[in-house]
């Protein structure tokens, strides 16, 4: 956890979803959430909510949002943001031990915690807490980073330091456990990368039903200038349409930079 805290203490999260691949991740996550969330004013728990990017949009749509994150720098940004002043609560906390009552929410978002919990028991605890806090019929949306997508990411950057990243790549693919031993910039911090089938099993193991996977960025990860494409309304709709078309294609799950698992209580 210390490596993760150090990574995020650099305050790199606040603009991640406004540049590069993050633009596609944000657009596609909101696209899927718009189809699977109950209508407002439902109560949503945004667990591991970063600097409030999704909470901000959900508030605009009329939801009651409880925000929780483990990083003090993120909570500081959220509490200072005037667009987030209407949060139902903003808490420094842990996905494995939520401060919310049983059956108190209509939806729980885990858009980051599962890929920062390296132990299967910790991921199970986070999903158990999401299940506990949901009302019957409530929905969970949990994001992962697939192991193969990590390799695609290395190749998309032209393997900047093969001597450093190859051992990381091979270890992560074989074990799921990602480490950046020297804490180098440009590489992710300590994490767990799934095989997509693992997420299905974890959600079902927590008791969730009707579980489905959604490839988020999918083929859009191949775009060289993501900002230019998404700023063109015609091209943006083309990208979104293609991603929707392929979002349940099992052949896409492995290389999509993020996959969203959705289930119901």
Provide the spatial order of strands within the biggest beta sheet. 3-2-1-4-5-9-8
What structural category arises from helix and sheet content?
A: alpha/beta
Report the top-level CATH class.
Alpha Beta
- Helix content range: 40-55%
Number of strands: 9
Oligomer: single chain
Q: Under CATH, the topology is which?
A: Rossmann fold
Give me the number of helical elements: 11
SSE run? HHEHEHEEHEHHEEHEHHHE
| N-to-C CA distance | 30 Å
Question: Based on the structure given, which CATH architecture is correct?
Answer: 3-Layer(aba) Sandwich
Low confidence ranges: none
User: In percent terms, what proportion of residues is strand?
Assistant: 15-25%
Categorize the overall geometry. globular
Total domain count:
1
Q: What's the mean pLDDT score?
A: 93
Pfam families: Methyltransf_11 (PF08241)
Protein name: 2-methoxy-6-polyprenyl-1,4-benzoquinol methylase, mitochondrial
Keywords: Methyltransferase, Transferase
GO molecular function: methyltransferase activity
């Amino acid at each position: 956890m210390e490596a993760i805290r150090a990574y995020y203490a650099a305050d790199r999260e606040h603009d991640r979803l406004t540049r590069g691949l993050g633009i596609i991740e944000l657009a596609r996550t909101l696209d899927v959430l718009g189809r699977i969330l109950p209508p407002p004013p439902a109560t949503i728990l945004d667990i591991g909510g970063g600097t409030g990017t999704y909470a901000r949009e959900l508030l605009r749509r009329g939801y009651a949002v409880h925000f929780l994150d483990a990083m003090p720098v993120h909570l500081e940004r959220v509490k200072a943001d005037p667009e987030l002043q209407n949060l139902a609560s903003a808490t420094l906390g842990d996905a494995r031990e939520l401060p919310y009552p049983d059956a108190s929410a209509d939806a729980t978002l885990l858009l980051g915690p599962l890929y920062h919990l390296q132990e299967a028991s910790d991921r199970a605890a986070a999903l158990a807490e999401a299940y506990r806090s949901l009302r019957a019929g409530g929905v969970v949306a949990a994001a992962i980073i697939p192991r193969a997508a990590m390799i695609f990411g290395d190749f998309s950057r032209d393997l900047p330091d093969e001597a450093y990243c190859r051992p990381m790549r091979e270890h992560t693919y074989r074990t799921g456990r990602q480490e950046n031993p020297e804490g180098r910039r440009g590489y992710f911090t300590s994490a767990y990368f799934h095989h997509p089938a693992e997420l299905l099993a974890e959600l079902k193991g927590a008791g969730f039903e009707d579980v489905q996977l959604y490839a988020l960025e999918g083929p859009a990860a191949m775009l060289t200038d993501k900002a230019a494409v998404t700023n063109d309304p015609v091209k943006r709709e083309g990208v979104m349409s293609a991603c929707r078309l392929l979002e349940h294609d099992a052949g896409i799950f492995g290389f999509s930079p993020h996959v969203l698992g959705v289930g119901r209580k």
